[in-house]
Design brief:
The complex is a heterodimer of chains A (112) and B (114). Chain A is mostly beta strands and 112 residues long. Helices cover 0% and strands 50% of the residues of chain A. In chain A, the strands form two sheets. In chain A, strands 2, 4, 5, 6, 9, 10 and 11 form a seven-stranded mixed sheet that branches. In chain A, a hairpin with a 2-residue loop joins β5 and β6. Classes of the chains: A mainly beta (112), B mainly beta (114).
């Protein structure tokens, strides 16, 4: 099993551009999460999903969108990129509400 | 507003020493308290976790101490090794009653000197 995979590993965007961060898992996890990690700030939840077709906002959802058309994939969409979205983004999956979250390797995004 | 407060921000320990990282929370509804370990360039990985019905959990050299009345919990790393050098995050969630959304502390960068 590959676990949780994320692409790309690194990306530079210009202000106003858009992009999709990909996340896939092969662990049959119903629960999936997107976090951003800023230096000295820990990880903040952006969006989460408890199953295909079901998504909800986390702590810091502004400027992002998600979709969950399949159990395996949970892409994160950035529209009109801003410098404040410069961060490292982590996707995670879990089998259920009380189960361990497994994190992907992250995507480093730089918005200039 | 930081739901989980973590200290210290950084910690330097000699090999063989004890590393102690502390966390505090306000929401008494939290019912799951994991610790994550993160190496540079990698995603966080679960190290050890505890639920509020026990006061201590030990796994090898790693121990969580939990004080429900004080709303505090801590990670103790015994016989610290250079390979333990990493950033450690405490977290809390509503695992049983919510979607297990994790609220993370701000992290502690641990350096173990040989």
């Amino acid at each position: 099993n590959a676990g949780v995979t994320q692409t790309p590993k690194f990306r530079i965007l210009k202000i106003g551009q858009s992009m999709t961060l990909q996340c896939a898992q092969d662990m049959n996890h119903n629960y999936m999460y997107w976090y951003r990690q800023d230096p000295g700030m820990g990880l903040k939840l952006i969006y989460y999903s408890v199953g295909a077709g079901i998504t909800d906002k986390g702590e810091v959802p502004n400027g992002y969108n998600v979709s969950r058309s399949t159990t395996e994939d949970f892409p994160l969409r950035l529209e009109l990129a801003a410098p404040s979205q410069t961060s490292v983004y982590f996707c995670a999956g879990a089998g259920g509400p009380s189960e361990t979250q497994y994190f992907g390797p992250g995507t480093r995004l730089l918005v200039l | 507003q930081q739901q989980v407060k973590q200290s210290p921000q950084s910690l330097i320990v000699q090999k063989g020493g004890i590393s102690i990282i502390n966390c505090a929370y306000e929401n008494t509804a939290f019912d799951y308290f994991p610790w994550y370990q993160q190496f540079p360039g990698k995603g966080p990985a679960l190290l050890i976790a505890i639920r509020p019905d026990v006061s201590e959990k030990k796994e090898g050299r790693f121990t969580i101490s939990f004080n429900k009345s004080a709303k505090q919990f801590s990670l103790h790393i015994m016989d610290s090794q250079p390979g333990d050098s990493a950033t450690y995050f405490c977290a809390a969630s509503l695992g049983q009653t919510g979607a297990n959304n994790l609220f993370f502390g701000t992290g502690t960068r641990l350096t173990v000197i040989p």
